[in-house]
Each structure stands twice: as structure tokens, then as C-alpha cells.
Amino acid sequence: MPRTSSPSVDRTSSLDLLLRVERGAAPLRAQVEEQLRDAVRSGRLAPGLALPSSRSLARELGVSRGVVVDAYAQLAAEGYLLATQGAPTRVSEAAIPAALAAAPPGADQPPRFDFRPGGPDVSLFPRAAWLGSLRRALRDAPDSRLDYGDPRGAPELRAALTRYLGRARGVHGDPERVVITSGMAQGMALFARALVARGARRIGMEDPSSTPGREQLIANGLEVLPVPVDADGLSVDRLEQLAPSAVFTAPAHQFPLGVVLAPARRTALIDWATRAGAFVLEDDYDAEYRYDRPPVGAVQGLAPDRVLYAGSVSKTLAPGLRLGWMVVPDRLADAVVAAKASDDLGTPVVEQLALADFLERGELDRHLRRTRSVYRARRDALVTALARELPDCPPGGVAAGLHLVVPLPAGADEAAVLARARSRGVGLYGLSEHRIEPGPPALLLGYGRITEPAIGAAVAELAAAVRYGA
Amino acid sequence: MPRTSSPSVDRTSSLDLLLRVERGAAPLRAQVEEQLRDAVRSGRLAPGLALPSSRSLARELGVSRGVVVDAYAQLAAEGYLLATQGAPTRVSEAAIPAALAAAPPGADQPPRFDFRPGGPDVSLFPRAAWLGSLRRALRDAPDSRLDYGDPRGAPELRAALTRYLGRARGVHGDPERVVITSGMAQGMALFARALVARGARRIGMEDPSSTPGREQLIANGLEVLPVPVDADGLSVDRLEQLAPSAVFTAPAHQFPLGVVLAPARRTALIDWATRAGAFVLEDDYDAEYRYDRPPVGAVQGLAPDRVLYAGSVSKTLAPGLRLGWMVVPDRLADAVVAAKASDDLGTPVVEQLALADFLERGELDRHLRRTRSVYRARRDALVTALARELPDCPPGGVAAGLHLVVPLPAGADEAAVLARARSRGVGLYGLSEHRIEPGPPALLLGYGRITEPAIGAAVAELAAAVRYGA
């Protein structure tokens, strides 16, 4: 793959400049000149842009070459264009339009250390392997795949995911019931809309849980009822009392507490859903990362007709890919697919085909093997540093995932700790923002965005922020 | 990029076939044979897949080469594999797994000739140039682009589009007001939700117009009022009477009638929007294709505070990319961006960066120049054939776009003509499905999905279908 390229002069001759000349109106040269000047002034033609050769533009406009040569010369004299012997005439770099000169809003300074949870280390993204999959996808895709397609997604990916999820996560499904999404945010919206279309109004949700996820459910018409989480995961007993039409849970690795749904609770959850005629939305967001315990299969495998299984590449590959999936119970399939078709007519196809290739070649397994050891080392460094700096705050949720939970001393002011840490250059995040009902203060330490060598210094800073008020 | 490739045996030797042999169980050959047979039957090994050489698979499984040679031979005899001297053994193309053999719902036999409008010829998709852009995007993207990002889209693409749309379409905008979408379907939903959030309830829409587009507006809470279209485009007078909060229009090339909004109407439209405090949704869906007339700039350039400009790559590159954009008036920007963030947290980033590269290198201009001449030739062939076969039905909307309109004789039964054409192997589509109010019978002939050599025969068949009932 060449790292540099030399765009040929040819390229600019085909640029479409949206110029037009009218016979019998103003002189042709004046028309061309004025339109080009306006286009540069307004920023329509960007600084540095190479213009077509006078010969080529003249041919396109149906005027003599001299008309364009004169117009270019006049605008160069005025400073709008830059004419260089032997090179294309360009829009002058000095001609920066007003609108582009302003700085983009909202771009504040990033922290020195960032413990933000909820994402992988995107610098580990396997660019070369992904490019290989994109290349094969583009080479092998039948033309029809590039047209409007099945709103559920490319059949190649639905088949590959069925195999991968069956093998790696114990998901029970066939390609007909797989729907490719643009990630969990869309998946939750589709689930909510399918429920509402069936007349559902209330959904239970683990508390604490993902706040944007909760907002997504509410925005799509559901009332969200908090369901407590303890050391064994979701309180299924509470579901019996609340009697919602569905429940949202992350059984393999609860977000943000990091607990696993206990075996007896798994059975109880399915029993409840079956008796109540309710649905379970299983968020399998980062179950691939586990360090000290055997894998926990998806709950969906126990009751595929009651559980909608959802996952994505956001925690394993990169959130920027916006690529996820759902395995949908038969009863919800039509409504989910209709909502997906109405949303966007389907997810972009080339990256779907690339992911199919990536899965089928075992590249995801390879990537997970590699990154698991990176994250395990960071997790170990973090646990060690916390034991040293904050021995009275033993962390929880350390066995899996990309973050852990540090309980703060009773009475600590979570918001004040976050603010002090921030002033010391540490991006720190609390449990409160994910709670529906209030609860004890705690920190969430994500290790997707902090490297192993930085962890010691970062924990020293955060410990200082914790101890300051104590 | 080569369109064909000779996969080296090397590549296939690394395939993980998920085969395993157990010593002391069934004979080794039977184990290998049975697992391969099951894998082909279930579709896990896809038709056409090149298998590892017997030597390489034997080494991987730790068995003698003869075991694999025998298993391959047996499965070739059964028709599951295809053994060719001097080439890798492949999964037989005839061995279509059950799950994939079942026709996907709604996919009946494709017609011999297909005049379906609303799409480009995806076989013209510039795969090599697009792969080049994907490669540079993956090579050059800062890591942060792969993380969750600005819901409006990658800044690189928003800047490149501002330049391109300014230059080629006369759109007035700055990157801060560009929102990348997953295509026009999503764009209409975002527009509708932003309007509803401001308290709007009614939108005018050109009649006839895109039916899925209308459904999208209705699904997102708007009442759609039909606004007639004549030879000068949208009837702005009617807007004055109806007084909706917004109007949907495709001024550069009305869909489906193919007319251009006349200069006086453009001014009147902007006057109305300004006076009424209303918004215009400008669908610039295929304005890049024009054959006999100068380009018509976007209406948005006249009133960027009243017009939301929307376009996509669906008619120029490929609908399967699901990639579009909007340039949003200030007053609607917050609501549109919030709706986009809630929908999907943003559009997939790698293809955004690829499109930015593709635009900046002039590849879209080059592709348009190439495909314009292909479509012009098809258009000419279609007009010629129609003049010969249906001289009493002079087509309209021929100057631009990817389809034209053939009025049927008064009293003709449009649905019957479509059905007869279909029975003659011609996929034919009528104007009725796009009308809100009833109107005279007419055909829409798209030439994105039919090649030039096929046009003569296809028109002869469709003319027979038209004349049959006359």
C-alpha cells in the first residue's frame, strides 16, 4: 500500500464548477470572471483548489480559450487566484472565506489521564486486517449488494454472525432473525418501537444502568421502571412486583456494576418472562472481555422466543464503525424490521460484508486474544495501584470488561471528587450519572482510554482527589 | 484493483474449519468426512469456498494426508465438493445450504428487463477508486475518529462536502451546519422530528412525489398536504392557500415528473418561506445528471436560513453505502443534531472519511463525467425506441436524471399495462403509486437498471403491453 500519491493534473480538468455563460448577456469574459470571483469570495471554491486548465474549462463552457485565460489573469491580479508557470492555476490560500475562519465550538482541552468508561482503546483497532476485509468485500460483493437491499442487512453477515454468536456466545438463532443495526443506540430504539407497537408501555431497567440507553427507551415511548441490582445481578423478584412488559439487562457483565447474573437468577428471569409473556432485551455489550472466570453464555440461548439479544463491535473493534446486531424473537421480528426499514432502509453494506469476512476468517477471535492480554495487564496495574493508594476502597467488577468500580468512603462527595480530579488533569466519572434512584458514592474507572504505564501516576492523582476532602 | 484474484493455497490453509478429530472414537476418515459434510450442508462452509490442500489440512488436524484425500474424494463423489486437477478443492456451487436456498421474503423472479426508477447502475460503482479512498481513510484517520464522535459526522467530510456542494451545487454552508446522515430516508425523518419539536404539524409535499418519503414524514408525526406540480414545478400559489409549516420539493429535477422549478417559482418559493416563517426541505437527489441543459443550482443558496438542503450518494455511487448529508438552517440545527444523536450516535466513520477523500481528489467529478455519458446514451436509445414504438406517447422529463415519464393514452388502464408488461418479462412501474391525488395514467421508465443494448427489445415488449388494450 503506497503511503504517498501524486494526483495528476488531469484530475482537475473534470471538476464541476457550476459556471454558466449566457450568449447575448454581458461579455463572456466578464461573466466567467464574475462567477469565479463570487465563488471564491463565498468560499464555494476552496483555498488551494486547483482549477481546470483554461483549455478544458473553455471547452466545457463552449467559449474560446482566450476568454478563460483573460478571466484567470484578471482574478490572479486581484489576488483571488494564484497562477504558477507550469502548474494548475489555484484558488489563493489567502482568500479564506469568513465562514471557515471561525474555530469549531465545543473543542475544549482533553484531560491528561482519562478514566472514561464505555469504550475500547481505539489505537488497538486492527487497521490492516480490517482493510483486508474491506478489500475482499469490495472485490467479491455481487453488484446487487450495492443496491437497496434487505433492511435486515447483508445475508453474508447475518449468516456469519449466526455462526459466530452460536459458537462464541451460545446464541440460538438463524440468519432470518438477525437484524444488523448501526449499534446499540439504534437497537434500543428499534426494540422500544416494536414493544410500543404491541401496546407495551412500561419496561424495567437495571439500576444503575446506561443513562443514554434509558433516555433512548423513554424517547421511544416507554416508561422506564428501575430494578435494583445486587451481587447476583438483576433482582428478578422485583420484576414480579413491577410487572413491566419487558426488561433491559446486561447479564454477562452488568453495566456499570460489573456483576454477573447468577445461575438461579438466569432461570428465574426466563421463568418470569415466559409466565408474564414479557420480553428481555439482553445487552451483551462487552462479554468478550473476561480475565479470571470462564465465559458466561447468553441468556438468549435459554429462551430465543422471549429474549432479544443485542451486541455490537463498539467495545471490541471501534465505536466509530457504528455496527451492531440483534437476534430477534419471532413475535417481534416484523415490527423490528419495519422500524429498521423506516429508520434508514438498512445499515451500510460494504462494512457489513467486511465484518462477515472478518468473522469468517477468525480475525475477530485473533483480535480479542490480542487485546484481552493488553486489557488484563491494564486491569492488573490498576488493581495494584488502587490497593497501594486507596487500600480502604477495594474495587468491584474486576473480573471482566473494560472498567471497574471503586466505592468511595461513606459520606464522600462524589461530584466534588470528580471536580478535584478534573482540576488535577484526571478525567474521572462517577456512578451517580448512571443511577435512577440515588445510591452510595462510587467511581467508574474505565481502562480503555489509559495506557498501562500511565496508570500509576493517574491513580496517585485520583487518590489525592479522593483523600483531599476526607 | 484486480477484479479477479487467484487465492493462493496459503490463504486457505489458514482457514479455521472448526474441525476436530478424536483419537479412539470413529475412524478418522469418517470423522473428517462427516464434519465436512455437515459443515457444507449447514452452510457453514459456503459454496465456492476453496478448501485447504489435503496436505495442509492433514497437518493441522494431525492426521495422515491419506485420511483427508479419502474424505475429500468421498464428498466429491457425493456432490458436496468439487475436485479439479491442479486447483484447490472447493465446496460445490450446487451444494446450496437449506437456509440460504429458501428465497428471501418478497424476492420473486427478477424480470428480464427492469425499468424500475430510483437507482443508478450499481455495476458502474467505482470499486477501485472507492477502495483507494477507504485505504487512505484507514491509513490517515487519527485514532480519535474511531471512537464515539460528533453526531453530525466527521469534520473532514463536513468540510469536504461544504467545498463540493458550494462548487458544484451552489449550496451556501459551513461545516458546522452539515449533518451526515445514512441517506435521504433518515434525513426526512430528522427533518420531520425537528419540525414537530418546534410545534409544526403540517407539511406540503409535491404531488406526485416519493411515496416512501411521504410515509416517512407521516410516521414522524406530520400531516402531509399534496401540492400540485405543473410544467414549471411546484405550485407555490397553492402553498399560500394551504399555509403549511414546511414544504418538501425537488427543485432541480422533480421526482417523478422530471420538471425543473422555473426561475420565477424559485423566487416565489423563497418569498413564501420567508414571509410565512416556513422551511423548505430541498431534495437534491439526482441533480448531478443533466444532459441537455445547464446545471441548476440549489435553491438553498438563495435562503440558507429557510432551506434545509439534502442529498446522498444513492443516485451517484450506490444506495448500499447509505450515506447522505444535510445542510441545516441555524434555527433547526440543534433539533436535527439531537435527533441524529438519539437515532444512532452518528453515521459510520470510515466510509465518511473515504467519501471526504473521494470528493477532495475529484473522484466524484470523474465518476459523474463517466457515468453521465453512459446514462446519456441509454436515455438517447430509450427516446429513440419510444419514438419508434409509441409515437403517440412523447416522453417527458428527458433532459436530466435517471428516468423519464411516458404518458399513456387517455383512458388507458395503468395497472393493467404494468401487469401485462410484467407477464412479458418487463419490470414496469407507473406514476399512480407516487400520486397522492389521482391523475392521468403514465409510466416511469428508469434507465439505471437496464443496459443500452437491451433497450430496443425492452421497449418493443412494453409497447406491446401498452397497445394490447388499446
Descriptive labels:
8-stranded mixed β-sheet; globular; 13% strand; 470 residues; 3-stranded antiparallel β-sheet; 42% helix; homodimer; alpha/beta
Low-confidence stretches of chain A: 1-13, 96-107
By secondary-structure content and strand pairing, the structural class of chain A works out as: alpha/beta
Major pleated sheet of chain A: 8 strands, mixed
Mean pLDDT of chain A: 89
Oligomer: homodimer
Q: What general form of chain A does the structure show?
A: globular
**Using only CA atoms, what is the Rg of chain A?**
28 Å
In total, the number of strands of chain A is: 15
The side-by-side strand order for the widest beta sheet of chain A comes to 4-11-10-9-8-5-6-7
How far apart are the first and last residues' alpha carbons of chain A, in Å? 57 Å
Q: Which band does the percent of strand residues of chain A land in? A: 5-15%
What does this structure look like?
Two copies of one chain form a homodimer. Chain A is an alpha/beta fold and 470 residues long. Chain A has 16 helices and 15 strands. In chain A, strands 4-11-10-9-8-5-6-7 form an eight-stranded mixed sheet, with helices on both faces. In chain A, strand 8 (246-249), helix 11 and strand 9 (279-283) form a beta-alpha-beta unit. In chain A, helix 3 crosses helix 4 and helix 15 crosses helix 16 (452-468). The two termini of chain A are 57 Å apart. At the A-B interface, helix 6, helix 7, helix 8, helix 9 and helix 12 of A face helix 6, helix 7, helix 8, helix 9 and helix 12 of B.
